[in-house]
Amino acid sequence: MLAACSNVLLFAIIRITVNRNQQLNHMDIRALVVGGSFGGLSTALALRCINCDVEVYERSTGPMKNRGAGLIVQTELIDFLKEHGVVAEDAISVLAYKSQYLSQDGSTQLVEQILQLMTSWDTIYNQLRNVLPSNLYHNEKSLVSFEQNKDYVVAKFEGGHSERCDLLVGADGPSSTVRQQLLPNIFPKYAGYVAWRGVVDENKILIVVVQFFANKFTFFHGRNTQIRCYLIPGPTGELLDGERRLNWVWYYNVAEGNELQLLLTDR
């Protein structure tokens, strides 16, 4: 999301500079957002709040789902949702009152009192998506390139479809077409670790296990590894006991080379 925002700012500056001598009001600005995940939806909602004409173009063929499992709710997210009248934090999150750190034998090594909100990717996405009118969100629209003219931008999509706009927002993720065209010499850099993650329905877990993780943010730290585990809302945002999910993520440091390639089995 941060990477997508850098494209948003960069390209917005280009278009605003071009039009700085024109007396446009927000109703005159047609904004086209490429990418319909968090970055794209959040930008579209913000632009609509200042009365821009906004449409979102997403390459996925259908509704986006299961793109990252659990999330920790940050203050900035809560502020954004409240500012745009989307939803209150207690409607999207599971509370954790403490952090617990486990030793290798499973015993509790340390407990810290905190107040943390846990949510999920699909819960936030659905809330943002439901606020944007369906006729403004277009699936199966994969951007190929864009062309900047003196007074407008033309976005070109697969299949020969093109759209003209005043502002093009690149929120199209790690393999961003917008970024590649604007910054062709910028490439992703391996961070030095891999991660496995998943979710399990709460009602499929022994109650004693659920109770051990409930209302807690659980960690295990080992040599070159870390595991986190916490409860998140159910598949469609359920928050009641028995309807939530247990989210886990396991980080493991590994150097580039043969060892890393052996781990990347999906490649």
The tally of beta strands, per DSSP, is 14
Average pLDDT metric: 87
Put simply, the count of helices is: 7
The amount of helix comes to 25-40%
Derived from helix and strand composition plus strand pairing, the structural class reads alpha/beta
Question: What is the rounded Rg?
Answer: 21 Å
pLDDT < 50 runs, ≥5 residues: 1-24
Question: What is the chain-wise order of helices and strands?
Answer: HEHEEHEEHEEEEEHEHEEEH
Notes on the structure:
The longest helix has 17 residues, at 2-18. The protein is α/β, with parallel strands linked by helices. α2 (38-49) packs parallel to α4. The protein is 25% helix and 33% strand.
Question: Care to give the gist of this entry?
Answer:
The chain contains seven helices and 14 strands.
